[in-house]
């Protein structure tokens, strides 16, 4: 979300650089039919976040609720839970009649007495790495299916529907944002019933990702969103902790639903999840290879949207992107790089090679914090210049096409108001916990992880049949497509040469309508793909819901991303 970005000085300055959204790029710098490598003619960089302030109004208080069976002893407002495993407890989301507006198709299904209601549940998972009371909140939405988006869930009519795990970035931002604003089954709207106590209700979305698979949202690291701990020392500082927590949660989740244990699993997320997704996917991959855990996770793929994955390469692309979209001149971009880039790259290398360790910890995080505080000079300088070029008007770092209106550039207030309603609190069973869009303390604890490079975790998975998809809205500045394209081009793996030489192909959404949703580069065997989404910023499913849904559907069905046909991309070099 928002943050403050400062560097310099003898003491550590707060660097609150929330990675949640992205900005858009003009078609002049990304043209179908020419190699992506032609965009590499200039090496330029830009900073991450402007000096945003935390919005205290995002703090919401939740009261108790009544659930199904076993009453817990925790300070949860007297919620009754079903104990699914020794560490996993859950309750059904039971909203009052009229608080969910369904499509005509689901209304008909719901009225059929022979139909089994879709499972929509919320729950908590107790972490076992601490002696304190620490719990991660999650929401599960059963596969809605129906229509063209489903096709039985998988290629060839396979019965096993994919399970899609989603993690919002930040670090420290709640996945409820994605669930109710991006790719969940419902969106929040104003209630037209003036006699109702609830001012906001849910409306079924047409392009929610639950039309493609079972959808699972987790608030992580612990203390994010509705997740909580009785001792803040349990908050994560690195991806090793994050990936272990999620791995342990998935073990119990599938133990509680053995009917889903063999289903294809896809790890997805956006923004700072460019760190989370490779770490979590690799943890699951290694565990399956070594027969670790009670459940052998059937990892089939991972997808990262507008992510921060290889910071050294991505910081080096800020200026190039800024010049490409016209917010700074070529000379201005070159000046910023000349001033900051070389030192930034040196500090990033020291962060990633300290004692040969990949993950941050108390002994190595200092150099990583020094790296992010220095490297932030690049985006901050570019944003300052861009604002001056616009007569003092700040750039919307999440979508360069739009003005930044309000504290967050996006208006999520309806979601907050909906979550604060008594009926919603009861449906989710969140007790008396406070909910906030993004937790600053969690964010600060992860700063030693920021400049870590997680691209090296990806090749081993690709070489062993796990598919990867990197997508980015073209108008996002903060995690722009240029930087993401650069690291995917440079990644060392057996398919690198083919991928680097590929021309982009149109992302055809509807051939009859002549509708394309962007451009795609994909290896012939479909193992790895890069998608630049047109008319979208940092939150692609929010800006282009149908495009995002179709992109996911093709990905989990092992179809050509560009055309929807069988196999990987067939574009000529």
From TrEMBL:
GO terms for molecular function: serine-type carboxypeptidase activity. GO terms for biological process: proteolysis. PROSITE patterns: CARBOXYPEPT_SER_HIS, CARBOXYPEPT_SER_SER. It comes from the Eukaryota. Its EC number is 3.4.16.-. InterPro entries: AB_hydrolase_fold, Peptidase_S10, Ser_caboxypep_his_AS, Ser_caboxypep_ser_AS. Residues 1-28 form the signal peptide. Keywords: Carboxypeptidase, Glycoprotein, Hydrolase, Protease, Signal. Belongs to the peptidase S10 family. This is Carboxypeptidase. It comes from Bathycoccus prasinos.
């Amino acid at each position: 979300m928002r943050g403050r970005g400062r560097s310099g000085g003898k003491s550590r300055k707060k660097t609150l650089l929330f990675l949640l959204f992205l900005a858009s790029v003009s078609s002049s710098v990304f043209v179908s039919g020419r190699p992506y490598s032609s965009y590499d003619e200039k090496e330029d960089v830009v900073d991450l976040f402007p000096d945003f302030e935390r919005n205290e109004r995002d703090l919401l208080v939740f009261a108790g609720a009544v659930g199904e069976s076993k009453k817990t002893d925790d300070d949860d407002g007297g919620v009754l839970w079903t104990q699914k495993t020794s560490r996993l407890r859950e309750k059904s989301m039971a909203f009052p009649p009229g608080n969910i507006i369904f499509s005509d198709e689901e209304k008909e299904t719901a009225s059929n007495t022979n139909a089994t209601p879709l499972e929509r549940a919320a729950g908590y998972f107790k972490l076992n790495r601490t002696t304190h009371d620490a719990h991660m909140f999650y929401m599960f939405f059963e596969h809605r299916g129906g229509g063209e988006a489903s096709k039985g869930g998988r290629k060839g009519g396979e019965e096993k529907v994919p399970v899609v795990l989603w993690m919002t970035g930040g670090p420290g931002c709640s996945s409820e944002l994605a669930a109710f604003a991006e790719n969940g089954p419902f969106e929040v709207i104003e209630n037209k019933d003036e006699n109702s106590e609830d001012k906001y209700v849910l409306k079924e979305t047409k392009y929610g990702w639950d039309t493609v698979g079972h959808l699972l949202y987790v608030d992580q690291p612990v203390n994010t969103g509705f997740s909580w701990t009785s001792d803040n020392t349990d908050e994560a500082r690195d991806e090793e902790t994050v990936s272990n927590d999620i791995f342990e949660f998935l073990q119990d989740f599938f133990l509680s639903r053995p009917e889903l244990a063999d289903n294809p699993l896809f790890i997805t997320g956006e923004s700072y999840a460019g760190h989370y997704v490779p770490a979590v996917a690799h943890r699951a991959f290694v565990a399956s290879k070594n027969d670790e855990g009670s459940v052998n996770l059937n990892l089939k793929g991972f997808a990262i949207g507008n992510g921060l994955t290889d910071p050294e390469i991505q910081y080096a692309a800020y200026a190039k992107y800024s010049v490409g979209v016209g917010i700074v001149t070529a000379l201005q971009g070159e000046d910023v790089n000349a001033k900051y880039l070389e030192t930034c790259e040196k500090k990033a290398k020291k962060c990633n090679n300290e004692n040969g360790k990949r993950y941050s910890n108390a002994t190595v995080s200092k150099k990583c914090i020094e790296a992010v505080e220095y490297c932030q000079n690049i985006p901050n300088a570019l944003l300052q210049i861009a604002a001056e070029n616009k007569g003092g008007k700040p750039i919307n770092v999440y979508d360069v096409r739009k003005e930044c209106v309000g504290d967050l550039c996006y208006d999520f207030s309806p979601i907050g108001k909906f979550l604060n309603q008594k009926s919603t609190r009861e449906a989710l069973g969140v007790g008396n916990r406070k909910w906030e869009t993004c937790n600053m303390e969690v964010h600060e604890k992860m700063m030693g992880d920021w400049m870590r490079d997680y691209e090296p975790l990806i090749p081993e998975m690709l070489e062993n049949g796990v598919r990867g998809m990197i997508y980015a809205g073209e108008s996002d500045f903060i995690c722009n497509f240029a930087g993401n394209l650069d690291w995917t081009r440079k990644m060392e793996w057996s398919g690198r040469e083919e991928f680097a030489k590929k021309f982009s192909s149109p992302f055809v959404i509807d051939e009859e309508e002549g509708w394309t949703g962007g451009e795609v580069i994909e290896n012939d065997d479909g193992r790895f793909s890069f998608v630049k989404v047109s008319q979208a910023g940092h939150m692609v499913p929010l800006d282009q819901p149908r495009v995002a849904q179709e992109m996911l559907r093709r990905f989990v069905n092992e179809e050509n991303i560009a055309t929807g046909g069988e196999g990987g991309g067939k574009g000529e070099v």
